[in-house]
């Protein structure tokens, strides 16, 4: 599938792997893909993010992603579901951090030296793999021959989880990105 990726999309994947390595995470996840997308410039994905005002909020997005990681990667919907069961996630995180130190739940996904597959490459989580496959589906749906970073962005906006929630909190939704990239019609017409 990577042979269908544009240079920009390949750069996003490479930077996601680098984010993963720098943070000491075991595997590349959707959050790493989003952080890498936020760093791109001069691409269709970065154009969409700029048109939606996200460049001025990159630090806020990174902070929101970090806070979600601190909660063990749980979304607000997860926290609400736990709350319905009588479990206060904020109190739970505080107690875990009192016992095990700040960021203990975030550190659960880390390992010294990281984890690599047999090929020597850093492994991807099932969620990250679903984003990559989703990018292919998005590209095909828009009759695009290659998979660009804009398709990765669109795939992140539709996959339930922290990245989509954080993007939506900052006004970046599947509908808004599609409108910027393909116009206000059905999403099938390509922007020039």
UniProtKB/TrEMBL annotation:
InterPro entries: Clp_N_dom_sf (IPR036628), Clp_R_N (IPR004176). Signal peptide: none annotated. It comes from the Bacteria. The keyword Amino-acid biosynthesis does not apply. Pfam families: Clp_N. Keywords: Repeat. Residues 2-188 form the Clp R domain. This is Peptidase.
């Amino acid at each position: 599938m990577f042979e269908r990726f544009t240079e920009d999309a390949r750069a996003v994947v490479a930077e996601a792997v680098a984010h993963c390595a720098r943070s000491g995470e075991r595997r590349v996840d959707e959050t790493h893909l989003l952080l890498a997308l936020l760093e791109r410039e001069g691409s269709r994905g970065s154009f969409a993010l700029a048109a939606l005002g996200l460049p001025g909020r990159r630090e806020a997005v990174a902070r929101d992603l970090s806070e979600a990681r601190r909660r063990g990667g749980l979304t607000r919907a997860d926290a609400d579901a736990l709350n319905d069961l009588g479990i206060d996630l904020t109190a739970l995180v505080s107690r875990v951090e009192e016992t095990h130190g700040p960021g203990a739940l975030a550190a659960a996904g880390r390992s010294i030296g990281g984890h690599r597959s047999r090929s020597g490459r850093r492994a991807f989580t099932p969620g990250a793999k679903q984003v990559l496959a989703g990018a292919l589906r998005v590209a095909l749906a828009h009759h695009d021959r290659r998979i660009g970073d804009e398709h990765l962005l669109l795939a992140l906006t539709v996959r339930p989880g922290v990245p989509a929630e954080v993007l939506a909190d900052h006004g970046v939704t599947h509908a808004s990105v599609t409108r910027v990239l393909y116009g206000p019609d059905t999403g099938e017409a390509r922007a020039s």
